[in-house]
Design brief:
Blueprint (H helix, E strand, L loop, with lengths): L10 H5 L22 H26 L6 E8 L5 H7 L9 E5 L5 H4 L5 H4 L8 E5 L4 H8 L5 H20 L2 E9 L2 H13 L10 H6 L2 H15 L6 E5 L3 H18 L11 H10 L1
Helix pairs in contact: 2-11, 6-7, 6-10
């Protein structure tokens, strides 16, 4: 699809993980394809809200007439990178009945008793919905790799299982959009400091965030391995620079809008005689 007027180049092409991609080469403070600053970005985000909401409603309405298509947005990131901001400022603009949000925390004992994808299958969005995974099955090849919660051969098996799972999703009508929000360690320190400085943000802070931060380089390597193994044509990865929150939100909004536009959606046609019903209503 043609990129929106406020983009100088389509961010989809600039952000998509392709052959030879290296996470270390991505500038977390960049804004690929967008030359404006924060004010221009906020204005562009606001201007796209109505279009995204309209397309989402068309998708939801179509499902009531048998359309099986749906979208799954996977959000992965280091702590404080802005996953919650995406949910609030991008997904918050659409009808909540058309959104299915799942947040994956530390597995429960019941979940650990099953294969790692068991809990993920239960949260796959239904027809007409935009599903959002706040963290996802990728935790099982990220933290599980960094913290050695699983053996190396099991991590390798999981890459294959993930590809099979996502291939099955796309084959049954799901558009999979995988986003890694990429921030710098300096930016994360600033955001963690802000959470500690503000009593209204203490609830967002977890001492364990610092423990994970100390393993920053290990996580970058784990993300790179995940991209190398699971960036496919059916379920692509997009690495979105996220030091600038406004840019990350705008980029994800564009990814979703583009995916919906590619579905060539329209409002479902009435399965009744509209004029007859107008007459009946007038006479009632």
């Amino acid at each position: 699809m043609n990129h929106a007027p406020h983009w100088t180049a389509d961010p989809i092409d600039l952000l998509r993980v392709g052959a030879g991609f290296r996470l270390a080469d991505v500038d977390p403070g960049g804004s690929p394809g967008f030359e404006g600053g924060k004010a221009a970005g906020a204005a562009a985000l606001a201007s796209g809200l109505a279009r995204l909401a309209d397309l989402q409603e068309q998708l939801f309405a179509s499902s009531r007439m048998g359309d099986e298509r749906r979208i799954l947005l996977v959000l992965q990131a280091m702590d404080t990178a802005g996953k919650g901001g995406i949910v609030k400022h991008v997904m918050g603009s659409v009808d909540p009945q058309g959104v299915q949000l799942a947040s994956f925390k530390k597995p429960t004992e019941e979940e650990l008793a099953h294969d790692f994808l068991w809990r993920i299958h239960k949260e796959v969005p239904g027809p007409g919905l935009i599903g959002v995974f706040d963290r996802s099955h990728y935790e099982d090849v990220l933290i599980a790799r960094v913290r050695a919660f699983a053996a190396p051969d099991e991590i390798e098996r999981r890459y294959g299982a993930i590809n099979d799972f996502e291939r099955e999703l796309t084959a049954t009508g799901t558009t999979v959009i995988k986003v890694m929000l990429h921030i710098s360690p300096h930016e994360q320190r600033e955001r963690l400091q802000d959470r500690l400085d503000r009593p209204d943000k203490h609830w967002k802070f977890n001492p364990g965030d610092i423990d994970e931060r100390l393993l920053w380089n290990d996580y970058q390597q784990a993300y790179q391995a995940a991209f190398d193994h699971t960036a496919t044509s059916d379920a692509p990865w997009y690495v979105v620079p996220a030091n600038r929150k406004w840019y990350a939100r705008l980029a994800v909004q564009h990814l979703l809008t583009d995916a919906l536009e590619r579905m060539d959606l329209d409002w479902p046609k009435a399965d009744y005689d509209v004029e007859e019903q107008k007459a009946r209503l007038a006479a009632s």
